[in-house]
């Protein structure tokens, strides 16, 4: 594993613990000699994790669409900043450059990006690990919702189990590094019933 894609808020969140989360995860990436791939902005947790990685002597690679260079304030102090035409190019490039995907606390954008990679794994478009850094129980409601979808027969337990959940950055990175891809046959759910 060489690079980890981190999805996180373009805001700081209401509790200072979220900024600390971004700093802790950034430091853990550098300690593990892993590059950060992220959305390329200077705002919110995105900016905090990038600044932390750069200050600790690591590699931070940003990918930002033209339209957002001003809004998210493209970070020009990175190892690499790629300015791409649109969101589709951003997401594709971030995915291609990364060996694993992690969501830190964030809003709708973070959740969208996390779910894209989680569902692409389910469909077999990639075999890379996907995890959430569940600091201060931030992702507990999301985990509960996913448990609910399993109980209600919309998702396989084995697939739910592929989501790596940890509240400690070093433990989370360890899980990503040890991850063995499990090809869950999503369509078997349907075949079982016909
Ligand atoms: P948020 O979690 O809403 O603060 O957004 C975090 C990051 O996700 C920001 O860099 C947004 O530009 C990005 N984002 C927002 N919406 C989307 C989307 N539909 N697809 C991919 N990224 C998005």
UniProtKB/TrEMBL annotation:
Catalytic reactions on record: AMP + H2O = D-ribose 5-phosphate + adenine
Protein's name in the database: Cytokinin riboside 5'-monophosphate phosphoribohydrolase
GO biological process, one term: cytokinin biosynthetic process
Superkingdom of source: Bacteria
This enzyme's EC code(s): 3.2.2.n1
Pfam families in UniProt: Lysine_decarbox
GO MF annotation: an example: AMP nucleosidase activity
Family statement: Belongs to the LOG family.
Enzyme class, broadest EC rank: hydrolase
Gene3D superfamilies: 3.40.50.450
GO-annotated cellular components: cytosol
Cited PANTHER family: LOG FAMILY PROTEIN YJL055W (PTHR31223:SF70)
Keywords: Cytokinin biosynthesis, Glycosidase, Hydrolase
